[in-house]
């Protein structure tokens, strides 16, 4: 079974090398593609210097949706059976990879989301972030009738069928919540697995208070549109 880790990266020069090394040290059999999303720093050079990852350089910054879709297009064209998204900031622990791969590999799910909240972990987030996550959990339940405890988690694995779907379409901005609703509307089986996550190891988040508000409104509208339009 061919497995690919997709790492979208924007200005992650300080952390991308260690993330690649962490994945490869635990899973030397898994391939990696870093999608350098028009970074202004040395992200691409740092990823290439590792010698352990494919690197795709986007000429301009497309945002997280465009970068992730590029990774899925790479996976589709190169025949991978499973693709896994991992953030470039070190929050996602490669030691937890097998937990989200397992249900895909044994056919129990089409998509497995790594969740910080299925079981109690040491992860701690701000009150505003927790409220946002709870809101999107409620919104997903309202629209598709399913409870996803960590809908904003970008740590997720999908099978070949979903790789093909996402190679052709992937939500643009803050895509995680909308992607879950899209998959449920298309009849795919989405599950969660409890994983441990860490605080970012370098750099800073692009999410500001203003962007958080924009995120809430934009994603809510996108989810509602995905619920009512024909996506089958």
TrEMBL record:
<dbReference type="InterPro" id="IPR029044">
    <property type="entry name" value="Nucleotide-diphossugar_trans"/>
</dbReference>
<feature type="domain" description="Glycosyltransferase 2-like">
    <location>
        <begin position="5"/>
        <end position="164"/>
    </location>
</feature>
<protein>
    <submittedName>
        <fullName>Glycosyltransferase family 2 protein</fullName>
    </submittedName>
</protein>
<dbReference type="InterPro" id="IPR001173">
    <property type="entry name" value="Glyco_trans_2-like"/>
</dbReference>
<dbReference type="InterPro" id="IPR050256">
    <property type="entry name" value="Glycosyltransferase_2"/>
</dbReference>
<dbReference type="Pfam" id="PF00535">
    <property type="entry name" value="Glycos_transf_2"/>
</dbReference>
